[in-house]
Amino acid sequence: MSNQGLLARSLQSVWHPCTQMKQHETFPLIPIQRGEGVWLYDADGQRYLDGISSWWVNLFGHNHPRIKDAIKTQLDKLEHVMLAGFTHEPVVTLSEKLAQLTGLGHAFYASDGASATEIALKMSFHYWRNSGKPNKSKFISLQNSYHGETLGALSVTDVAIFKDTYAPLLMQSAQMPSPDFRLSETGETAEAYALRCAADLENYVSGHHTELAAFIIEPMVQCAGGMAMHHPIYLQRARAICTQYQIHLIADEIAVGFGRTGTMFACEQAHSNPATPVRPELVEGQNRPNKVSDIADFICLSKGITGGYLPLSAVLTTDTVYQAFYDDRTVNGFLHSHSYTGNPLACSAALATLAIFEDEAVLDKNRVTAAYIKEQATCLNDLPIAHCRQQGMILAMDVLGAQPGFAQHCYAEALKQGLLLRPIGNTVYLMPPYSISREEVDYMITSTHQAIRLAL
Predict the structure, then answer these.
(1) What are the backbone dihedrals phi and psi of residue 79, each rounded to the nearest 5 degrees, phi first?
(2) What is the rounded distance in angstroms from the CA atom of residue 237 to the CA atom of residue 360?
(3) Do residue 82 and residue 157 come from a single domain?
(4) Domain match, 35 and 84 both
(5) Are 390 and 366 in contact (CB under 8 A)?
(6) CB–CB of 383/452 below 8 Å?
(7) The CATH number of the domain where 180 resides is what?
């Protein structure tokens, strides 16, 4: 079917996410027929370089043979079984591998990132209730944070366009100053500003810890909040504060996990002095590698966990949290469920994704690619941009003098160049699949330059 035919059918029947549908009266949808590597192809053969990994989920390119084969193999065995009272090999093996990677030994599954946030919030609250501290029922997050759009997740989100309409439905939470380095004072380093924000966090927590269940944070990069990046010292201090005042730290790595920031998980970048580790009770020996569990009591994972192939999310947590629910009384169990929890097909895709990381030195290759992206991005400096910043495979910049509607105009101009971008306000970012070649990086950067120039 032609682009026009599919477009007409889609507009009649599909309500698209984060979209004012009336705009599509004049601003056409792009019907995609297939994908190959970093490229998406429409029905007329036009191709678009996927510069944002299809909303940050696609890690290794479209139509990856290894992930496809894993799903096909699993499809011949078992497509789905409920995880209440039953189990299966893919979910067990995936849970074991995630535990090895994070140091958090208990995995609870859902289908999307917002659901993972809901699980972590509910689990933290219920932990304190089971532990005899029911007053610890409130949450804090960062200013300009984003954790999803279901009601619980939206309650700890601080992006007005998503939250304000639904404010009457939401529980109250408090937002702490963001360590986003762009907010620092003239002459103040990113580290010094992060420490100043951590001091503000401690001041609040010290006065409210008896009612606080958890602090939820996007480590290193607040993605939907404009790719705000911060110094890792903030994570160290946040962990120490949460430990001192007995509140949980929830690491929302839905967007930044699985190599996006340069390490497998962003939390790993909160390096501590081996002689004085952040959580000495968890260090069992010398030369122990950094683990997520050094920083987080919970980690929320989704997006890249299956390489972008099937919906899946997971919340991993500690033995201490798990044991608080292990009881003869059903009411003390974690009574939360999703119909497709631990789906075998999705778990098989996730296992294939992790195998690619293990077998193909992905993180090492990403460092080389990230360095090349940084080098090539210098050509953007003749544009009116500020705060050109990079964290691993994420590059972002703020466009100065951008007028209302800039994001949509830039998106449209990029499509004309054969590039998929999705600016956030005046922030243009690149988050391509890890399989991108040098020639494709060159194309992506050149097309981004042209799109920004034409959109201004």
Answers:
(1) -85, -35
(2) 34
(3) yes
(4) no
(5) no
(6) yes
(7) 3.40.640.10
Q: What is the CATH number of the domain that holds 449?
A: 3.90.1150.10
Q: Domain range for residue 434?
A: 31-63+361-455
Domain boundary among 328, 359, 390: 359
* Tens place of pLDDT per residue across the chain (456 aa): 567 777 888 888 999 999 888 888 888 889 999 999 999 999 889 999 999 999 999 999 999 999 999 999 999 999 999 999 999 999 999 999 999 999 999 999 999 999 999 999 999 999 999 999 999 999 999 999 999 999 999 999 999 999 999 999 999 999 999 999 999 999 999 999 999 999 999 999 999 999 999 999 999 999 999 999 999 999 999 999 999 999 999 999 999 999 999 999 999 999 754 444 555 555 444 445 678 999 999 999 999 999 999 999 999 999 999 999 999 999 999 999 999 999 999 999 999 999 999 999 999 999 999 999 999 999 999 999 999 999 999 999 999 999 999 999 999 999 999 999 999 999 999 999 999 999 999 999 999 999 999 999
Split into its structural domains, the chain has a count of 2
The token pair that represents 263 in the structure block:
């390490």
CB 380 within 8 A of CB 123: no
Q: Is 17 a member of any domain?
A: no
Q: Which two structure tokens, joined as six digits, stand for 213?
A: 């269940």
Task: Judge if 50 and 127 occupy the same domain.
Answer: no
Q: Taking a C-beta distance cutoff of 8 angstroms, is the pair 298, 321 a contact?
A: yes
CA–CA separation, 416 and 352 (whole Å): 35
In a domain, 10, yes or no: no
Paired sense of beta strands 298-301 and 248-252, if any: parallel
Domain boundary among 359, 379, 400: 359
**14, part of any domain:** no
